[in-house]
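re: that complex we talked abt at group meeting.

here r the seqs, copy pasted straight from the sheet so there may be weird spacing, ignore it
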Amino acid sequence: MKVRLLFRDRDLDFALDPPPGSQALVEDLGLDVLFRAMAGGDRFLAEVARKVVLTSLDDPAEIAYRQGILDDCLAHPAMVRELYAIAVDAIARQRSVWLWSTQFADSLLNRSVDILGLLLVSMRRVRAIAETSGPRMRSPGLRRLFEELDAELDDAFLESVDTHLRLLRRHDEVILTAALGPGTRGGDYVLRRRVRPRSWLERLRLREPDTYTYEIAPRDDAGARMLGDIRKRGLALAADATAQSSDHVVSFFTQLRTELAFYVGCLNLRDELAQLGTVISRPEALPAADRSLTAHGLSDVALSLALRGPAVTNEVASLVMGLLVITGANRGGKSTFLRSLGLAQVMMQSGMFVGATAFRAPVRHGIFTHFRREEDQGLTSGKLDEELGRMRWIVDHASPRSLVLLNESFASTNEREGSEIGRQVITALLDAGVTVVLVTHLYELAHGFYADARADARFLRAERLPDGRRTFRVVDGEPLPTSHGHDLYERIFGAAGPADTD
Amino acid sequence: MGIRDTVVGAETVQPGTQPHQAPFQSILSPGGLSDERRADPDYFRDLHLDEIVRAITAGRDQYDLVPFFRERATDVETVRYRQEVFRDLERPGVLAAIEMFAAGMREVRAQHALAAKAYYTFERQSWVIAAASTWCRTARRLRAGLVAERLEARGLVDLRDYLDAYAASPAFTELASDVQRVEEAIAGVRYRLRLETGKLTVSRAVEEPDFGAELLATFERFKQGDGRKYTFEFSVSPQLNHVEAAIAERVARLFPLVFASLDDFCAAHAGFADPVILQFDREIQFYLAYLEHIERLRRGGLAFSLPEVTESAGVFAATGLFDLALASHLTRDETSIVLNDIAVEEPERIVVITGPNQGGKTTFARAIGQMHHLAALGCPVPGTDVRIGLVDGIHTLFERQENVEDLASKLEDDLRRMRAILGQLTARSLVIMNETFSSTTVGDQAFINRQVLAAINAVGAWCVTVTFLDELAALGASTLSMVSTVDPANPARRTFRIVRRDADGLAYAMAVAQKHGLTYKQVRAEIGA
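got the structure back, here u go
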């Protein structure tokens, strides 16, 4: 029985680390807030969320597979949480059984039998859920899992487990078959199970013909020990088999817990966002070759969570683009918009819902961010080095069909120099087929692309109403020479000028 | 050569009735070996050959190899016979086949020993059949291993032919098929044990399911990946305990025919091992032990080679020779050893080695002696481009280190020993003397040595003498002078190189004295003028 809730054809490898550069992505897009919301206080959920979300899928079919399962989970949250709880409980039960060491066959056997006994209860509970909820599932992933659980954990199976465990708990007799080993010592021991004869014919067939007994003399302690040794040898195989079996059952529940954890995290996030009034929907993942992007009601989910309220939404009419340039007023919502795009992309590529009423975008082979770091306020050349170093890392790891999000990049030097460097880097990326979204106040850089009239370039501006107010939205618009810093100036100094300081 | 138990130890495997009619007899000599020497030759101790042989044979006590290393071959044919075997053993395939054979034979002996120690009849018989089975397998494998290789040594080719004949012989084929039959019968025994507290019941196996397999099959469906297997350690004594014996005895009652066949087998094949092969097992260890011993030195960079051996003594040349005993010590300490060359040209027969104390002269003389013995054993010797003759005797007269109070009686002993040696010398003998007759004045010593050397010269024997008496080095056309050298820049430092050169006299002693400020002039300058 395979869990396969995150991938159709394989299990999640929990031991794998997220890809290099994930930390930058987490910082720049504010993913920690997202993971915390998914965790709902459970550290394990946070870890799973982190691993799954940061290891993006880049196949629309794989994304659709998860989205189907997620739909079912969103429709039946109680069932999902219960199933998750059963898995967690099963693992806790297994841990509760003490084992001193795996050295001794009989103690290992007893401990494994105990674990299996405890897990039998978990198996029954899982089977109950599969039975009742199975038919209500629509996704291929959950349908398949529940069908399998239903089929494999049927009554006959559960009965036989019960019987086996009862037999293993008996200590009165042990039946072995053996062969003659070197020196006629016994070897090749196989533990046997006594069969209850069902017919008189069978009883005849199974009748032990000639038997010879040997009794250990009352004071023969050594003899009793030797008999015990033979018994242990015979039990060794059974101990191995039972211990392996209990390992298998535990590993199943462990895998189930891990993969379900992602969906439980999604449920937690949905509940939080719903409370905050943030709209979510199922995105559509297009093939990587597609160059269009559509977003309605797109909001920065991380910001919502941080501000504990709904964030501003944006519209991006379906545009076909390689380069998207966003300019405009300071604090005009450019960064927020950029982040919301990045977040939506990452969330979509992990199979989750996104913070939008509609979102359609191609899958990206690699999502990279290059944001101005808060501490890089100075304009010393050391900062430029650091910034360009990071850019170089991205160039080393990006491939055609990657997505690169640049937020005020190349600003740690003067506008002329920064624009020239930026122009070269971005043009190279674009020509290689990388999609670039650029937020910048470097007029020369933005205008340069505008003047080029590149077919694949689109331009948005942070909206500024005629009276100077900002809506924190972005709209179509060519880059303008000023960033409306003079709005700020006027606000602080008044319309008259610096002389009037009252 | 008669039928003997050729393996010494607690238990010997009984040989079978007849060795087979084939040319092969011994891997150590084409005509078979004569009786073995039970004591070290006189010269062993002086030349440190006792130490060398002990080191070579260490860890192989069960084969009793020391006698093989004591006896020099007397004819070139035997030497070449052995050298050929050494050469073939350089090939990894041949060596591997033989080492596998040796391991198999050790197992046969081990199983045989267990049979002897067994208390219960069926236990003993079971080990006998195991030993016989291992024997058949080992003999077959050796034959197959040798057939697969290209062999050049006459000894190994003859052995291979012998094995071919043996494998086809009725005795062996009967043994092998009996072994197989009995083993199959035993393998077919499966019995059922019911264990309760303080009681067990033995019966034939009936159709009952394999519980372990059932458990695994039941829980297979939960498997996510490869799990681990659980294994346990059980400490076991080689002999059956009384409970195990009680079980076996009851199994015997259930399978009387199988156990009867064990009886029959042991009666029919009391001694199953072929004596020639048994002897080969022992004798081939001569080669394996030696090769293993020199392998360590080879890995340290020292060269060994098979010398060109001739009947005439007095032919002697070698490049890069060294004292084998010293080399083993130094290799352990990871110090390098100095190599020397020697080339004796007609009419030279007496090598006089002089030079400063502790200069390596005695070591060099020993190395020469060792080489003559080892070459005559047929072994690879230290050095390369070695040409050496077979001598009819090696005689040594070394300064004994004993704390002798009475110098006069010591001189008398030395003289008596020398006289005995002279009595035995022929033109094909080798005499090695080291600082002899030193327990008298220099004048007397020089006189005695001159007389002795003259006598040796008259016989025409070949001699190596280490002495501080420089004048002996220039006795005549038959002397070859070799000198141990010092570093010219630092006369106190010896190089341990011995080279062909005229004796230098007291030059060294003076140089050393000067270095320490102990010449006459220096001392006078120091203590009052």
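couple things i noticed - Residues 221-276 of chain A form the longest helix (56 residues). Chain A touches chain B through 77 residues (CB under 8 Å).
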